[in-house]
UniProtKB/TrEMBL annotation:
<feature type="domain" description="WCX">
    <location>
        <begin position="259"/>
        <end position="331"/>
    </location>
</feature>
<dbReference type="Pfam" id="PF19187">
    <property type="entry name" value="HTH_PafC"/>
</dbReference>
<protein>
    <submittedName>
        <fullName>WYL domain-containing protein</fullName>
    </submittedName>
</protein>
<dbReference type="InterPro" id="IPR028349">
    <property type="entry name" value="PafC-like"/>
</dbReference>
<dbReference type="InterPro" id="IPR057727">
    <property type="entry name" value="WCX_dom"/>
</dbReference>
<feature type="compositionally biased region" description="Basic and acidic residues">
    <location>
        <begin position="1"/>
        <end position="11"/>
    </location>
</feature>
<dbReference type="InterPro" id="IPR026881">
    <property type="entry name" value="WYL_dom"/>
</dbReference>
<dbReference type="InterPro" id="IPR043839">
    <property type="entry name" value="PafC_HTH"/>
</dbReference>
<feature type="compositionally biased region" description="Low complexity">
    <location>
        <begin position="13"/>
        <end position="22"/>
    </location>
</feature>
<dbReference type="InterPro" id="IPR051534">
    <property type="entry name" value="CBASS_pafABC_assoc_protein"/>
</dbReference>
<feature type="domain" description="WYL">
    <location>
        <begin position="162"/>
        <end position="230"/>
    </location>
</feature>
<feature type="region of interest" description="Disordered">
    <location>
        <begin position="1"/>
        <end position="22"/>
    </location>
</feature>
<feature type="domain" description="PafC HTH">
    <location>
        <begin position="26"/>
        <end position="138"/>
    </location>
</feature>
<dbReference type="Pfam" id="PF13280">
    <property type="entry name" value="WYL"/>
</dbReference>
<dbReference type="Pfam" id="PF25583">
    <property type="entry name" value="WCX"/>
</dbReference>
């Protein structure tokens, strides 16, 4: 018969080394679950406890030996947990203060609810997320009867119809027709897309798909989709349509993109930090020479005109000439008004 009484700070056997390495955080998490479980199962066996928590009996005893160092402030014999496991049966005393199972704070519940709602909004099959969300809301209400149910409105309704159509197109493998605003050209376009996935990057929702207008894979910001209609056409992307490696960024240069070199004065040097680029040379006076990859030269023309005399296109020469011609036309129009 073995008699190990941690409550009176004695142990008749040396501590057994655990067979598997684990972090202190992992062990703490188990101990916080172990105490209330043992209090609900008074006299449970060491072997059964080991099976319940997926550890060895030796590790159970090691955890019990650690518990005598735990308790409430004061840390005298009266405040520390008393653990006994005579003849393989475990008894805890003086552990009521930490007997309650761990619960989420209201802030934690709100954060988790927001994440689950966002996840549920884009999943084609969102049953698991919705069931988890329902359990979270029920548990929060039970733990805070006077606080009411947590419900977050994450959508003002403007994107709900678009997202619903995109999800339906993905689920049914159908092509979708988009009315899409292109910010770089300040124009609205019509295009058919075979959707591949919906992703969230830097707080923005995007749909990635094979664009039949561009004959290439493209990203479309959901908040710039003015309308989406599922078509009665197969939406399976062609074999050459492969998802891009995002690396946490939506912009991924392709071989067909135009390489542009811009020189900018100090007041316009911010463009190197704002736009993804291929490299920057910074001068002592604060000016820069930056190399960009752009899919649409119109973006560069609009940028240079907006910066006035603080930036100019160095290469390619045809784009530099196009920007200069557009600037002269704008000046001529102002002159005509005057």
């Amino acid at each position: 018969m073995s008699d190990k009484r941690v409550g009176d700070r004695r142990s008749s056997a040396p501590r057994t080394t655990r067979s598997t390495a684990e972090t202190a955080t992992q062990r703490l998490s188990r101990l916080l679950d172990l105490v209330p479980w043992l209090l609900r199962h008074e006299g449970v066996g060491v072997e059964e406890t080991a099976r319940e928590f997926g550890i060895s009996p030796a590790q159970v005893e090691s955890d019990l030996e650690l518990l005598f160092l735990c308790g409430t402030p004061g840390y005298t014999h009266a405040e520390l947990i008393d653990a006994q496991w005579e003849d393989g049966h475990i008894y805890l005393a003086n552990a009521d203060d930490i007997a309650a199972p761990m619960r989420l704070t209201r802030d934690e519940a709100v954060t988790l609810t927001a994440g689950l709602q966002a996840l549920s909004s884009i999943l084609v099959n969102s049953e698991v997320a919705e069931r988890t969300l329902a359990k979270l809301r029920a548990a929060t209400t039970a733990g805070d009867p006077g606080g009411g149910r947590i419900a977050l409105d994450l959508d003002d309704g403007s994107q709900h119809a678009v997202m619903s159509e995109l999800k339906r197109a993905l689920a049914d493998h159908k092509r979708v027709h988009l009315t899409y605003y292109v910010a770089t050209r300040d124009e609205t376009t019509e295009r058919d897309v075979d959707p591949m996935r919906i992703v969230n990057l830097d707080g923005q929702w995007y749909v990635e798909g094979w664009c039949h207008r561009a004959n290439a894979v493209r990203f479309f910001r959901v908040d710039r989709i003015e309308a989406a209609t599922v078509l009665d056409a197969d939406g399976t992307p062609p074999p050459e349509a492969t998802p891009r490696e995002l690396d946490d960024e939506v912009f991924v240069p392709s071989d067909s993109d135009l390489t542009v070199v811009i020189e900018a004065a100090r007041d316009a040097a911010w463009i190197a930090d704002y736009y993804p680029n291929e490299g920057v040379v910074r001068n002592t006076d604060g000016s820069i020479r930056v190399t960009l990859k752009v899919a649409d030269p119109a973006l560069v023309r609009r940028l240079i005109l907006r910066l006035g005399g603080d930036a100019r296109v160095v290469a390619p020469p045809q784009l530099a000439d196009a920007v200069a011609d557009e600037a002269r036309s704008a000046l001529a129009a102002y002159a005509a008004i005057g």
